[in-house]
Structure formats: structure tokens, C-alpha cells
Amino acid sequence: MDHIFQASRQWERIQDRWITEDASVNLTNLKSDPRNYKLSLWDPSTNGVRYLKALTYHLGMTSSVEDLARINRTPNRGIGNPITVRCQGELLCMDYLQATFELGFIEQEIDLTGARIMEIGAGYGRTCHMIMSNHDIASYCIVDLKNTLELSRAYLRETLDDDRFKKIEFLSVDGLVGGALKSERFHLCINVHSMTEMSPDTVRAYLDLINETCSAFYVKNPVGKYIDQSLDGYLQGQEAVQMALENGPLRQLVDIHDSQAVQAAVPAFIDGYRPGDAWDCVGDSRALPWSYLWQALYKKPEQ
After folding, report:
1. pTM, rounded to two decimals
2. Span 95-223+240-299: which CATH code?
3. In the chain, domain spans
4. For residue range 123-139, what is the model confidence (pLDDT) as tens digits?
5. Per-position DSSP letters for the chain, written without gaps between them
């Protein structure tokens, strides 16, 4: 019996549409156009969820026992219908992997038992949710814009039990006028990826507040600004790009896909987020998995 060697219907279609007779004529963009996407890669413009799940899976499979234990102790993570994968028996999403990495970094230097914490810009509240699920916190103050504050209030009300939820104070940015919080004392302040989106004057005001009221400060933000239209085609428009470039304490352009360029920007990051001259940076590292996010923990020497 003669063997039959022929293209499948799937590959007949690919050759008709993408790997055509002219495919080898010009190799200029071979590795970043549909020819290669059909040969060896998934098209990033249409496979964002596939890549997110692949990245989440990779992080989950390389996470430590301690990382996964923190996630396991954090209930109600499924609220909001996250994009998840299952690794090592645990249902994981990118947000709570980020939260466990952040908390693990903080725990290396800070004893959170009975701590009073302030978070500036909490998003929907995932970091607060994980910290309060893993530690006996005395109080947690979230400072944020009005609409985002209502979002975190609603989310944390759903995910935390009554005793933990009662420990949270939700303070609108408008409530800081007149020196509010100046008399408060916090063991730790947290800022994750929001100071980079504030005006330089606002960042300075918050760093001054941290200097006056806190003993330690954890920050996770980009090492600088970047311009790369290939990432999203400037989906939100050129004006949004310009507004992003104007904000934050670090506005120098960095090639975020060059590890040496990112590393060279780290000293400016550490200085730029230092709340005051007396504060010591007791730890810093790249914030996985992103190439351009850095994290640092500062402590204020005992007075």
C-alpha cells in the first residue's frame, strides 16, 4: 500500500493565506509577522489571554511553598472572575501571585504582627486582602481617590470577614487636606504601581507624609518611563502616552527590554523613592515577572 504524504486541510489553508508562494521573497519582517506566527509563535495581538495564562502558569510552577501557602490562606480570591490556571493543586491568577511575592519580600524585614499599615493607592484591594489574611494586623488605612476607594471597599467587604474588615479605614485623598494623618504613626506604608502615575509634586507630598508618619516603606514601581508602540499600538491614544510621561518621580526614558539598561536605572529608583535622607534601603530587587518593575524596602532609623 502506498503511503500518502500531503498537507492537512489546516495547512492547506495556512499556505493559501499566510505561507504563500511569495512568503520567501522578502525576509525583512519574517519573525514578527503572520508568517512566523503560523510557523512557531502565537500572534500576540490576538493571543493576549493565552500568553497571560502561560506566564501565570510559569510563575505558579516556580513559586515557593511559602508563596503558595500565603495564597492558600487568602480566601474568596475567585470573586471578580479572575483569569486563572491551576498549579501544584492551587488555583492561581496573576494578581495574587503578585501579592504573595510582595508580601514575601516585606516579611524578610518587617514583623507584621500587630502592625499598623497605610497603603497609598490600593487598587481593588488585593494586597490588603492578602496581608490581612496572613497576619494579625492592628489596623490598615487605605488612602485613595474616591471612586477607587469605593471599589476597594466593596471588594474587601466581600472577601474579608467582619473582624478583619472592621480594621480597615478608607480615607479619600480629599481627607488629607489640613494635615490629616500627620499625628498618626504607622509601622509600614505600601505603594504598588501608583506613584508612577501621580504628578511629581503629589509624589513628593506623599513621601513627606511617609517620612513624618511611618517607620518603613515598601514601594514597587517602574524604574523609569518607556516608549514602545509595539506593545499595544498606543490603544488609548497619544495624549494618554504624553500624560504618562509627565508623571512620577522618575521620568527618564529606559529601554525596558534591556536588562543592563534597567539595572543602570536602579540607583535613581532607590534615591527617587527614598522618603527622606535618613532612610536606609534595606532591600531591593526586580519585581517578577516584569522587566521594568523594581521593588525596594526602606526603614527609618530609630529616633
Report:
1. 0.90
2. 3.40.50.150
3. 95-223+240-299
4. 999 999 999 999 999 99
5. --------HHHHHHHHHTS-TTTTT--TTGGGSHHHHHHT---TTT-HHHHHHHHHHHHHHT--HHHHHHHHTS--TTTT---EEEETTEEEEHHHHHHHHHHHHHHTT---TT-EEEEE--TTSHHHHHHHHHS--SEEEEEE-HHHHHHHHHHHHHHS-HHHHTTEEEEEGGGGTTTTTTT--BSEEEEES-GGGS-HHHHHHHHHHHHHHBSEEEEEEESSB---TTTT-STT-HHHHHHHHH-SS--SB--TT-HHHHHHTHHHHHHHT-SSTT-EEEEEEE-TT-SSEEEEEEEPPP-
